[in-house]
Amino acid sequence: MFGFSAIHVIGIVAGLALLYQSYRLVAARKEGIFEFLLWAGFGVGLLVISIGSALETVDLLAALEGGLSALGFARGTDSIFFVSNLLLLFVVFYTYVQLVESRRQLSDLTQELALLRYDLEQRTDDED
Amino acid sequence: MATQSTRTATDNDTPSDDRDTARPMHDRDTELSVLAIVPAYNEAGTIADVVAETSRYVDKVVVIDDASTDGTESRAREVADGVVSHPRNMGVGGAVHTGYLVGVREEFDVVVQIDGDGQHDPADIPRLLERIADGADMVIGSRFLNDSYREYSLVRRAGIRFFTWEVNALAGLDITDVTSGFRAYTTALLADLSRPENSHWALEQTLEASRKGYRIVEVSTPMPPETDGSQFDLGTFLKYPPRMIKTTMKVLLFR
């Protein structure tokens, strides 16, 4: 029924790790719902592909190839690479946007901290 | 939103020697309250003289120390009315924006911006302020309205010319020195401008102010190039085009 090889085990472990870590972070309120769904989705996808391709009774890759050939992909593996790259591009873009926003917020905080110190010094000088 | 909707004309001054150094601006009849901001990064050798001279022409001088490591902050505290000290370096765009916030929050009428390296002569401040009193929203001190630009390297002159031409073309202006950091503004304008990038703030600021309909004028202000803070080499020139494209896109699309 199962034809596990090392690559299947790696995929399953990675999928479970993603699920566990994303759940742990959202439970601790260290990430938002959107981030949880994103990473948990990757985890579920990894599990489905790893387990599905290891099932001898269900030829997942063949099913994928059949379904995706209707979209114009020549081979199932091509489509997997294509979709994977699209997802990675999405993740990189999302991370970049978050990084830019974090840098802007850091600049704002730096500025406000400096201005607060300045205000305090000015008030102290006025009182003196 | 623009506070004055019909102002895009540029009003270049011809070179002039009519500096009124004997009469500080805050003694004049304009009744404008004037804050001078001095963005400084490692200018310990010049900051005290710049502040002392500038204070003759304005009501208050505040130094924006951009995390200097050479004692600029302590030197500035000896002479300035106030010092805003960034905990980390933010670049000149961040430093000038911090100064603008001081001017807006303390409700000054006008903010004068002058470099801490001694490149700008504080004695020119009254002439900048005169143009503000005449109705300008932003006054730029230009080195290209006198002979001081001839002392600059060919690369630096070409760079300034190119970017000034580009801003003029994009904004319908007729200015000569868009990269100049010697400026005076009404705080109404500053309150309406977005926070600029940490680099190339002058281009972004000028474009945005023009697009919002503010009146931008220039006056002739000599600026000798031989100061430590004047860095415009070939590397800087090569970095400018992509940054200029980025700045231009940002202003045209989102501001």
UniProtKB/TrEMBL annotation, chain A:
<keyword id="KW-0472">Membrane</keyword>
<dbReference type="InterPro" id="IPR019277">
    <property type="entry name" value="DUF2304"/>
</dbReference>
<protein>
    <submittedName>
        <fullName>DUF2304 domain-containing protein</fullName>
    </submittedName>
</protein>
<keyword id="KW-0812">Transmembrane</keyword>
<dbReference type="Pfam" id="PF10066">
    <property type="entry name" value="DUF2304"/>
</dbReference>
<feature type="transmembrane region" description="Helical">
    <location>
        <begin position="79"/>
        <end position="97"/>
    </location>
</feature>
<feature type="transmembrane region" description="Helical">
    <location>
        <begin position="6"/>
        <end position="26"/>
    </location>
</feature>
<keyword id="KW-1133">Transmembrane helix</keyword>
<feature type="transmembrane region" description="Helical">
    <location>
        <begin position="33"/>
        <end position="55"/>
    </location>
</feature>
Automatic annotation (TrEMBL), chain B:
<protein>
    <submittedName>
        <fullName>Glycosyltransferase family 2 protein</fullName>
    </submittedName>
</protein>
<feature type="domain" description="Glycosyltransferase 2-like">
    <location>
        <begin position="37"/>
        <end position="185"/>
    </location>
</feature>
<feature type="compositionally biased region" description="Basic and acidic residues">
    <location>
        <begin position="16"/>
        <end position="28"/>
    </location>
</feature>
<feature type="compositionally biased region" description="Polar residues">
    <location>
        <begin position="1"/>
        <end position="13"/>
    </location>
</feature>
<dbReference type="InterPro" id="IPR050256">
    <property type="entry name" value="Glycosyltransferase_2"/>
</dbReference>
<dbReference type="InterPro" id="IPR029044">
    <property type="entry name" value="Nucleotide-diphossugar_trans"/>
</dbReference>
<dbReference type="InterPro" id="IPR001173">
    <property type="entry name" value="Glyco_trans_2-like"/>
</dbReference>
<feature type="region of interest" description="Disordered">
    <location>
        <begin position="1"/>
        <end position="28"/>
    </location>
</feature>
<dbReference type="Pfam" id="PF00535">
    <property type="entry name" value="Glycos_transf_2"/>
</dbReference>
